[in-house]
Description:
Keywords: Membrane, Transmembrane, Transmembrane helix. The protein has 15 helices and nine strands. The chain is an alpha+beta fold. Among the domains are: 24-102; 106-256, Jelly Rolls (Sandwich), CATH 2.60.120. The strands form three sheets. It has a four-stranded antiparallel sheet, with no helix packed on it. A three-stranded antiparallel sheet has the order 1-7-3. Strands 8-9 form a two-stranded antiparallel sheet. The longest helix has 28 residues, at 75-102.
Amino acid sequence: MSANSSRVGQLLLQGSACISWKQDVEGAVYHLANCLLLLGFMGGSGVYGCFYLFGFLSAGYLCCVLWGWFSACGLDIVLWSFLLAVVCLLQLAHLVYRLREDTLPEEFDLLYKTLCLPLQVPLQTYKEIVHCCEEQVLTLATEQTYAVEGETPINRLSLLLSGRVRVSQDGQFLHYIFPYQFMDSPEWESLQPSEEGVFQVTLTAETSCSYISWPRKSLHLLLTKERYISCLFSALLGYDISEKLYTLNDKLFAKFGLRFDIRLPSLYHVLGPTAADAGPESEKGDEEVCEPAVSHPQATPTSLQQTPPCFTPPATTNFPAPPTRARLSRPDSGILEIDDFPSYFRQFGFSGKVAAGRIP
């Protein structure tokens, strides 16, 4: 070890081995090569940083090949520069291949940016979801049905990409489905993986539509294997079902125009809890109250005929009738007529006639 160190020291003390230095400088190709190499080594990280790095290195080493061939006239310089340039070009080709492999079709790329990127879903996870639907985009022509009430089996889950779909039941319009909404989320959530069922609504394309569809069994296998994807679909489906419920909120109203809001379950205590217990008898009583003196005008005392039509005071008193508004705000609005409420939502706990505020 000491002998090697002493030999290195002697070489340093002897000075340069060059007999004479060149008086002229190298040509422009040599300096251009070094500038390109300097710029290349200043590249950053990431995919585009690697493109920058290997791009400039390739150009720099190619300039070194030219310098070694025309100016230096050294075979070793040409060979090493050529080898390094080839390595950098191969690395660039590998990066291009990886970028092309990661590129998604236009529809799926837009879906990722709209639906999954705001939730910070990793791209690799999104590719697994897309792979489950075989990267196929299906289409519906205008007035073509996606599902028929009572006939189409529930064997898939679909997401609308473009167009508009009309949902109806027994020929009655319920709501629309817009792009990036699930087309059959209530049906998907209503069945267990081992159960089978049919659609309770009819879905018809109002315009030319495109959508993607996951087979039921394949998607269940993916959700069972990947917990993160299962949580993601639970959140997306829950949000989609809630949006459909709020869309149908405009169809819920009381007999006298009092609009009902499913977001306010405490409304039940305001509208009157006794109305829910009265059942059909309360409805019958309401009809009698709204027509008090029409059926038997001769049996009503003369002093009572001047009272408001929706209130009949006791015969033994002469107290003034309370305002009609106070009388109509409790029993009649306590029962909501929602017979047109879709039955495919009743499976979540809704009934045909629901007391105000008792919708779960």
